[in-house]
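Our platform keeps sequence and structure together, in a single record for each protein. Because each token names a local backbone shape, the row as a whole describes the fold. One such record is reproduced below, unchanged from the form in which we store it:
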Amino acid sequence: MKINSNIQAMITNNVLSRNEHALSASSEKLSSGYRINSAKDNPAGMAITNRMNSQIRSLGKATQNSKNAKSVIATAEGALSEIQNMIQRMNELAVKASNGTNTTADRAAIQKEVDALKKEIERVAGETEYNTQSLLNGEQGLRGYSSVKEVNVTLYNDLFPAGGDPQHIKISDDGGKIKIEGFTGLDYDYTVEDDVITVKTKTGGELKLSYDTTAALPIEADLNLLGTGGMHIQVGSAEGQEIQIIIPAISLENMGITTLDMSTEESAQKAMDQLKGALAFVSAVRSQLGAYENRLESTISNLDVSSENLTGSYSTIKDVDMAEEMVEYTKLQVLVQAGPSMLTQANEQPQQALQLLQ
């Protein structure tokens, strides 16, 4: 029997300290709802859940980005709908002007309305914005530049070869007709309408060039088609996970209706053909915007599913099972309550040595 070292009391005190620490940790888990509250709880789990949480939050922002992009498309598409209505109205006027019953004064009145509609198309295209960013004036189109001022790149689509070395072209007069040469390695056709040259490849690529009709021919130029531009929408949590939205410039020049003459039956009928091409141009742009919107809807659905699954995995590691933890908490509560009683009994044992001294 020893009185200097009460081993039983030391053991009981150590067990009580451990139980109190465990009870404190269990209480923290129950109050926070998390299995892992600090790195010491589960170092590897903490690192994994931190990465998961970062990705979950990034996916949430990517979803919001995609929804904002849908709003951009809806804004552009709404403006294009109005432009299309104005082109339809001009087409009606062209049909009316083609009728032989009209007088010179009638055609002059028709011409005034057509000119007013053209100005309104230019205004709508120039002023349609989303968050101060212009949508239809070419700012969201692909970038392209010419080495000479007599030639301008007005638009090209993403199917036209871009990037790499500049394309050298030559515009010349071929017996009274405009001829364009160049575009090394491309199988293409071209048409000329007023001062606009439209180049189309066999693979669906399209490029529009405007040139100075008063300049002396031939004109030689290097075209630098960068392949960059448009609006880049971040739709993922990693670099490069983006969708590029390209909206070409909606201009009278690109639609081929810079000049619409309603003064005669013949010129009005020519205008009808020009307006048919303009309608086709606007319809193609709206169709492309619709494809972007469908793609964004699929992206949003995929992001939602990814976020849901990742959140489930995160919860499995990070969140506490409240029922299971409550059982543990109750057990520890009983042990902690019993600890002082047992420690008291352990401290009383050395007093039995007094009986040996009687």
In short: Residues 43-97 form the longest helix (55 residues). The mean pLDDT is 90. The longest strand covers residues 219-229. The CA atoms of residues 108 and 263 lie 7 Å apart.
